[in-house]
Design goal:
The protein is an alpha+beta fold and 131 residues long. The longest helix has 18 residues. The protein is built from 2 helices and 8 strands, in the order ααββββββββ.
């Protein structure tokens, strides 16, 4: 069961992080409804309990919303004006949620699967070209 959860979790978080990268970032969209955290982010996800593995992935935040790049997984979340972020990813009946805080260039937080079988931390760094 643990080996089954690892690819789902890793892929789900990768999707969550990558969807943010798939939203266009032209000048007009920057002027309308953009948040201070919008752009591309590189996120490292670490498992501290359980057998879900660790992964590095890309994500995009657009208008304060978090998007996944791979449409085979569901990902949704948001970051508020003070940088508090909450994200949920799901695939094949499994899900994981993460919370944390972003600054202009960095972020960190915690995540756990819906069943509690795995949990861990994540760290994010904004890609330089976006701000």
């Amino acid at each position: 069961m643990k080996n089954f959860l690892r690819p789902i979790f890793v892929a789900s978080f990768a999707v969550f992080l990558a969807m943010v990268a798939s939203v266009p970032s032209d000048a007009a969209s920057r002027a309308a409804g953009r948040s201070s955290y919008d752009g591309s982010w590189s996120v490292a996800i670490y498992t501290t309990r359980g057998d879900c593995g660790s992964v590095r992935a890309a994500l995009r935040i657009y208008g304060g919303r978090v998007y996944a790049e791979d449409s085979s997984y569901q990902a949704y979340g948001a970051v508020n004006a003070s940088g508090a972020i909450r994200v949920t990813v799901a695939s094949s009946g499994r899900s994981a949620s993460g919370t944390g805080r972003l600054t202009r260039t960095y972020g960190s937080g915690r995540w756990r699967t819906a069943t509690g079988e795995c949990l861990g931390t994540w760290a994010a760094q904004r890609r330089a070209a976006e701000y």
